[in-house]
User: Fold this.
Amino acid sequence: MSAGAPRSAFVRRWPVWATLAALAVAPAVVPQFYVTLLNYIGLYSLVALGLMLLTGVAGQTSFGQAAFVGVGAYATAILTTMFGWSPWLTLLIGLLATAAIAMMLGFVTLRMSGHFLPLATIAWGISLFYLFGTLPNLGGFTGLTGIPALSIFGFELRQERHFYYLIWAIALAALWGTHNLLDSRLGRAVRALKGSLTMAEAFGVDGAKLKSIVFLYAALLACVSGWLYAHLQRFVNPTPFSLTASIEYLFMAVVGGAGNVWGAVIGATLITLLKEVLQDFLPKLLGQTGQFEVIVFGILIVVLLQRAPDGLTPLVQRLLPRRRPADPAPAPALAHRAVAAATGRPLLEVLDATKEFGGLVAVNNLSFELRQGEILGLIGPNGAGKSTMFNLISGLLPLTRGNVRFNGETISGLAPYHIAARGLARTFQHVKLIGQMSVLDNVALGAFLRTRSGVAKACLKLDGDDEARVRYLAAQQIRRVGLGAQLHDAAGSLPLGKQRVVEIARALAADPALLLLDEPAAGLRYAEKQELANLLRQLQGEGMSILLVEHDMDFVMGLTHRLVVMDFGQKLAEGLPADIQRNPAVREAYLGAA
Ligand code: ADP
Ligand code: MG
Assistant:
């Protein structure tokens, strides 16, 4: 069995091997024209791959990718023809220039929400296009010629058939690296950027920084494509780097889809062939030349995206053998995140916390404490301000007034990812999971702060040890909450009650000192609630402190050590569960609300 497993994994990857074999023999068997086409598909795939990550996965739209291709192409064109520099050195210069520009654009726009990145990239794309076209010495819109051929170990890549291998070696390396990146600690976080940014930040992800990294990654891929292009063509002019070209790259990424890195190749192939066919065929059909192909092209894309909104990759994948992922193998435990033993102070102190939403005071001058090792219940009628209080503690909302201290230090004012790093994890009343991602990967995201691997390690798959530990830990937490049979299911396919339980497993994967649970038992059946109560008691026995919001009074009364009751943002009562149950003001607030 163990000898058969790797072999069958190899066999099940036959579509990849078949593609690689076809790419390897193609230049020897297909006519020159198709080698040229394949060269362009390889170059476009590099750019589309970056956009797949940036737009498809991370949800950030760039209209400036062609301009980054232009930076790579013009950097090498200028420096090789005018100064005689080695193309390999100019690649480095191009990458540095791209990085500087991308970081500047990213830094300015990615911290702001809204459409700043698309707008900034449009402006950048247009200005660079005209800069290339009008700067003296760059040959204007006719461009620069005489770019030298690339040579590798003295072998000059003058023929397209030879250049082909360089392009595809780089494209395949980029596909492999990006595939690895998506399947890593950072990859899980990138997949959260589009729909679950606040959740990701509550688990330690610096969203703006990660978006900048992805933007930079995509820009660097585009730059490499431009560098290759310049040495393939041996001349450059501004046309291929226009806004129109950027939009075509976006089409490639969207048509391919973001489910798999091969989507970039599928998208690049389809758009390239479509343009080729339309430019060739339509004028013949209509007996005149014109811009018909642009119109037909646009209509076809709209129809395609209407039929397959997630791009073509899912359709292709449906035809291929399905791979059932293996359960994570046992791996050593991750280091415990030791939070300094409390200094005799309470673990959590909320001091005169106030949160105003315009005229509405959602939390009003609220103070309470949570002692180390305690399960504290925060209860109150709907709209009392409990979830808002959670958001104030975890840093997702800023306080209007007041202060929150954790383990003796002020945490109010810190970004949520810094608060998470202090040892705090939470669940959300409105479940925040990444629906298409497996339960296992969702829970693994909870451990974001417990390993350190960055982009380079992930791309080169040097993060294997950490990943094995994280995946095994995630599987253990999922089994612990009773969802072991759902490890590989898409989180979004679970019933809502179970999704809440996945959220608990994800919070546990963070190994927090303080766990904030917002209505964890909602949607669970009686027996499931009992299991959850047992689990929380067990966690508390292991030294975890828990702040619990819950409406099920039996659940709360049997589990918590103390209760804080909120009503209209204020503290109505505080004390032992038995006393709270008898408190007339509390009874009235609940009966009044009911
Ligand atoms: P609870 O969790 O106790 O049911 P919430 O904290 O969700 O209560 O809400 C408290 C009050 O604050 C409610 O009146 C709610 O409508 C309001 N509120 C919560 N979040 C926001 C927000 N982001 N913007 C405006 N009002 C909000
Ligand atoms: Mg709530």
Summary: The CA atoms of residues 195 and 434 lie 7 Å apart. The mean pLDDT is 91.
